[in-house]
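Lecture notes, unit on protein representations.

Consider one protein chain, 54 amino acids long.
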Amino acid sequence: MKTKIPKSLMSLLVVPVHSDAAVSNSPLSYLIGGIIALLIMGYLIYTLLRPDKF
């Protein structure tokens, strides 16, 4: 049976249990994620307020 998920996407979804990506729960990763989330939220608010520039 053929799956509908491409193999390249499947390789991104599968993370070994003992890899660095699976256990990176340090406060630094939360801080970086929060900064990225604030930047994205600021960009979205800016595009909502000034839609004529995009």
